[in-house]
Amino acid sequence: MVGWIASHQAALHRFILSLLPDRSLADDVLQETNLVLWRKAAEYDESRPFLAWAFAIARFQVMAARRDASRDRHVFNDQLVELLADEHPTANDATPLEEALQTCLGRLSEGNRALILARYEPGTSVQDLAKAHSKSPNALSVVLLRIRKLLEECIERQLGTSIP
């Protein structure tokens, strides 16, 4: 479950940001969503797409955050949030490339997956990650390059073709 939650952070964050105009509030809602996902892990039906389940939970967390912030005049109304949520692509709408990427991310070691996902979090730099992992920025860049190469090769195998 931890791997699925970690590998879908970017998609969850984008989904929540599409429903909440305030980045800070969206970050808070993402954390709350992660807590709920973790608490409800035993309820997840593995025969269904994980991301669709996670989006449903995120939607409820967005609604709760909106309810709590309803005194703010810069909050979307419920109808607009529902419309935006309904228009957001779900896991079932993923392209073959996105599906291959998710599969290949799942095949990485937990450390490599966490590192590559951390690199693409908004506001994260190679310098920040290097410091956190006690490596030089150049050494970390080499590690990230190797992880990207592993992903590229895996995706090409999944798709049966080279990545455009």
List the helices and strands and how they pair.
Layout: H1 2-7, H2 9-19, H3 23-39, H4 50-68, H5 78-87, H6 96-107, H7 110-119, H8 126-132, H9 137-159
Question: Any overview of this molecule?
Answer:
The chain is an all-alpha fold. The longest helix is centred in the C-terminal third of the chain and has 23 residues, at 137-159. The relative contact order is 0.12. Helices cover 70% and strands 0% of the residues. It has helices spanning 2-7, 9-19, 23-39, 50-68, 78-87, 96-107, 110-119, 126-132, 137-159. The mean pLDDT is 83. Helix 2 (9-19) crosses helix 3 (23-39), helix 3 (23-39) crosses helix 4 (50-68) and helix 8 (126-132) crosses helix 9. The chain folds into two domains: 1-92, Rna Polymerase Sigma Factor, Chain: A, CATH 1.10.1740; 95-164, Arc Repressor Mutant, subunit A (Orthogonal Bundle), CATH 1.10.10.
In short:
The protein has two domains: 92 residues, Rna Polymerase Sigma Factor, Chain: A, CATH 1.10.1740; 70 residues, Arc Repressor Mutant, subunit A. 70% of the residues lie in helices and 0% in strands.
Q: With helices defined by DSSP (H or I, 4 residues minimum), what is the helix count? A: 9
SSE-based structural type: mainly alpha
Helix % is over 70%
User: According to CATH, what is the topology of the largest domain?
Assistant: Rna Polymerase Sigma Factor, Chain: A
Q: What is the overall shape?
A: globular
Q: What number of domains? A: 2
Number of distinct beta strands: 0
Radius of gyration: 17 Å
Please outline the major beta sheet: none
Low-confidence stretches: none
Average pLDDT score:
83
Topology as a string of helices (H) and strands (E)? HHHHHHHHH
How many angstroms separate the termini? 31 Å
CATH class of the largest domain: Mainly Alpha
